[in-house]
Design goal:
single chain, 397 residues, D-Maltodextrin-Binding Protein, domain 2, 46% helix, disordered N terminus
């Protein structure tokens, strides 16, 4: 603005009035022909600058809460995103199919730890509620009652449950091959024949270990009921503790408990590999390439029928978990200790390569396990529930 003798033209006053709308200017507005009096031009200029500064200041303050609100929304969105669908999981975790799954402490559980870890991270295709137990007996009733949908069990128990439930259980996959060994603290046992007249401590009564042992003893001319004393303990871990405490000198254990005992007591050594013995005796009766399959995974048939897509996704994730266990031993050993399947990651790291953890499904599974069931049935039909499983026992994707 240009000032002359302290007078501002009326048009200029209108502009000032429109921009600042201040009530603090003690002025008198004249008509277009009039003039503003009693205000010094310099004072008016200073006051107008002050008003501009104040307007800028308050405008800045007004923006601050908006920025805070945006940040809060961003933080809230970040927190919420963890439970929302992701590109790899288009369904929110809480809306995915829930599968109640049970496994045993041992190779079957070792192969599942990556799956359990991924489930905790909510990156699995399904929701899994895991149960880890020490003995198969803890699983049987829960499968029959419907509390458990999928379970890792000994191979003979899978067939027994199929017969006991009139076909309401199916075999999904084989997960563990031969892992049984006879250990001795001493130097009296070099072959199966040397067990005659001895006391052998074992675990797994009523399941695959017992029937494998009986069959091998019989094929070597030893009557399990008369020629040897066999003392069974409920859990593998219980038997391992008994051996380490000096209360049992000859024991039959599966991995990873074999590794646990040998690593903690140098007096024990493996004297009989039961997998090799199995191959030897089955070949003698004309069965070639019989594979000692110790463990498997089963599913309730009604659950599989109602949730086929979820069961197939489980098999895909389980296969990947087993592959991870065999290839990423260091990481898997930490998870095994975390889920208390073995007492330490150091022991798990040593045991994993000896555990024969595997994944076999479909027609190959069916052909491989059929030979085993035939041997069990010929030796003792009760070992698989009294009858050979029919074709509907085998789940084929």
């Amino acid at each position: 603005m240009k000032f002359k003798n302290g007078i501002v033209k009326a048009g200029q006053v209108k502009i000032a009035k429109k921009c600042f709308k201040t009530k603090n200017i003690n002025a008198r507005i004249l008509s277009d022909a009039g003039h503003i009096s009693n205000i010094n031009g310099n004072k008016l200029f200073i006051m107008m600058c002050s008003v501009i500064i104040l307007l800028v200041f308050f405008a800045g303050c007004a923006k601050s809460p908006q920025t805070t609100t945006t940040n809060n929304k961003s933080q809230s969105s970040s927190k919420a995103s963890s439970s929302k669908p992701t590109p790899t999981n288009p369904v929110a975790y809480e809306n995915r199919t829930l599968i109640n799954i049970a496994t045993l402490k041992g190779p079957t559980g070792m192969g599942m730890v990556k799956l359990f870890s991924d489930n905790e991270a909510k990156t699995t295709a399904n929701r899994y509620k895991p149960l880890i137990v020490g003995a198969p007996d803890e699983i049987v009733a829960k499968v029959i009652s419907g509390e458990i949908d999928i379970a890792a069990v000994p191979t003979n128990l899978a067939a027994t449950l199929y017969n006991k439930t009139n076909g309401k259980v199916q075999l999904l996959a084989l997960n563990t091959l031969g892992v049984l060994n006879i250990l001795e603290k001493g130097n009296t046992i070099t072959s199966i024949a040397d067990l005659k007249g001895k006391t052998l401590y074992a675990s797994g009564k009523g399941s695959t270990p017992e029937f494998v042992l009986n069959y091998i003893l019989q094929q070597n001319g030893i009557d399990p009921a008369k020629d040897i004393t066999i003392v069974y303990k409920t859990e593998h871990s219980e038997l391992a503790t008994l051996a380490l405490s000096g209360q049992a000198d000859i024991v039959m254990l599966p991995e990873p408990f074999v590794t646990t005992v040998i690593s903690k007591n140098v007096g024990f050594k493996s004297v009989v590999d039961m997998t090799k013995e199995w191959s030897s005796v089955t070949q003698k009766i004309g069965i070639k390439n019989s594979v000692l399959s110790m463990g498997c995974v089963i599913v309730r048939k009604d659950f599989a029928v109602a949730n086929k897509a979820a069961v197939d996704e489980f098999l895909t994730e389980y296969e990947a978990s087993i592959k991870y266990a065999n290839e990423s031993i260091d990481e898997t050993s930490l998870l095994i200790a975390k889920y208390e399947i073995m007492p330490s990651s150091a022991l798990a790291k040593v045991a994993i390569p000896n555990c024969n953890i595997t994944y076999i499904d479909g027609e190959i599974m069916k052909a491989q396990i059929a030979n085993l069931y035939n041997v069990f049935f010929m030796a003792d039909s009760k070992s698989i529930g009294g009858a050979l499983p029919l074709d509907d026992f085998y789940y084929i994707k």
